Amino acid sequence: MRKTELLAFLQNQTDFFDPDNLSEVFTASWLARRFAMQRNTASHYLNQLVAQDVLVKINTRPVYFLHKKAFCQQFYPLSRSEYASMAELLAESDRQPEQADHFSLLTGHDGSLRKPIEQMKTALFYPNGGLPLLITGDSGTGKSYMAELMHEFAIAQGLLAPDAPFVSFNCAQYASNPELLAANLFGYVKGAFTGAQSDKAGAFEAANGGMLFLDEVHRLDAQGQEKLFTWLDRKEIYRVGETAQGLPISLRLVFATTEDIHSTFLTTFLRRIPILVSLPDLQHRSREEKEALTLQFFWQEARTLAARLQLTPRLLQVLTQYVYRGNVGELKNVVKYAVASAWARSPGREMLTVTLHDLPENVMAATPALSEAMGQQEPLLIEPQTSLVWLLRAHDPVQGLIYDVQCRVLAQYEAVLIKKTVWEEAQRSMGEEIETLFDRLIFDNHDSSSSQMLLLIAHQVREEYYRLEKRFNIQFNGTASTR
Predict the structure, then answer these.
(1) Domain Sigma-54 factor interaction: where (predicted)?
(2) pLDDT in tens, 168-221
């Protein structure tokens, strides 16, 4: 009976395991006190469950025990039941197979990038080789990265072979020489021009069976655009100097431009591109997305340098409010500069403190008035082994508030399971927690409209009710519940 209660408790608690804030509730000593048993008895039960592949053991000091199935469902699959360190356990996440939907990893995939992603998937899933599409957006918005992501997504979905090529071709390199453009794009045959001593394949043939990304396509003049019509109309090309027979080419074609399409492209060219995708600039993305991107870039730097980064609240405020003319690309470079500056001040140190003084001068010069409350907040610490998901969750005050209440509600239910609390008392306490949460989310919120916040609350409550029903085999009916 004790072993069963121990297991049920760890199953509940593992859902809220945070590797950055290790809790003693996962240790044998704490569990022994919690269940009023000898420490050696608790250790015996725990090690038995590890041997049965039910628990995961992390051999640090102190030793931690996690519920394996709950961990795998909440985080990622584990290959074994014992780990020498927390870092070794976290390293398992890097060995997981890539997700089928690579777009879900993007910051803003469910926000500002939702429509562009839907359009890209439409182009990829269209029968008979998909549809060509044109990506528009200012410099630094991520057009090249999105094209690469489309390629990875297509392979993961089985739309392209695992070894399908991705060829990136920058049209600006040949804008002043149409003949050189055609030769590099379509290839040429021997004798096509002076110096053509043998046949040579171009970018289209190199990308056959995969994806061809034509960047800065606005640099093509009218003649250059017209040379693409043959493939767009018949899916075949002619090498320069070849007139007898076209060469069939099967690929996914993606164009990108920073210019206004109606003043740059032929109408006959645009008619052949059924999907036009517009990527938003950084200033038109939400504050939450900008914060998430900023933290993501700092996280990448921490992993690159294998160093702990401590970020001051004022630094994060400035980086979020600054207007980046170079968009996401400029933000990434500013973060890299700041970390490099902190590294130069303290080379080789295991922890770097990044402050306002590490920012480039142009960013500092444009710094607005800072909130006084920012100076009272604790610095944010990023560990090299920190999970990006956990980092973003910890920094989001709304998610953090919901998470804390969720922990307390589940603790109340766990108390019922082990007969420490009667159901009616726990139900009343859980109701008070949730009512207080709603009050804080609705009436303390100044950044979003009430309707938006209510949508968030409704989504969170539905998700939690579903999880509780599955986990504890209970059924909620309106305001009542049955067990």
Answers:
(1) 106-340
(2) 999 998 878 888 888 999 999 888 787 788 888 999 999 999 999 999 999 888
CATH architecture of the domain 102-280 equals 3-Layer(aba) Sandwich (3.40)
For residues 11 and 56, the answer to whether their CB atoms sit within 8 Å is: no
**Model confidence pLDDT, tens digit, residues 233-246:** 999 999 888 878 88
SS3 141: coil
Sign of CA dihedral 38, 43, 46, 49: negative
pLDDT at residue 466, as a whole number: 60
> What is the CB-side half-sphere exposure of residue 44 using CA atoms within 13 A?
6
Q: For the chain, which residues make up each domain, given as ranges?
A: 2-95, 102-280, 285-384, 397-482
DSSP-derived 3-state class of residue 252: strand
pLDDT in tens, 14-35: 888 887 778 889 999 999 998 8
So what CATH class is 2-95? mainly alpha
CATH of domain 285-384: 1.10.8.60
Are 161 and 209 in contact, with CB atoms under 8 Å apart?
yes
What is the reported pTM?
A: 0.63
**CB under 8 Å, gap of 24 or more: what pairs does 60-64 form?**
60/85, 60/86, 62/24, 62/27, 62/28, 62/29, 63/27, 63/28, 64/22, 64/26, 64/27
Dihedral (CA of 338, 340, 346, 352) sign = positive
Strands 252-257 and 211-215: parallel
Average pLDDT, the chain: 84
The enclosing H or E element of 265 equals none
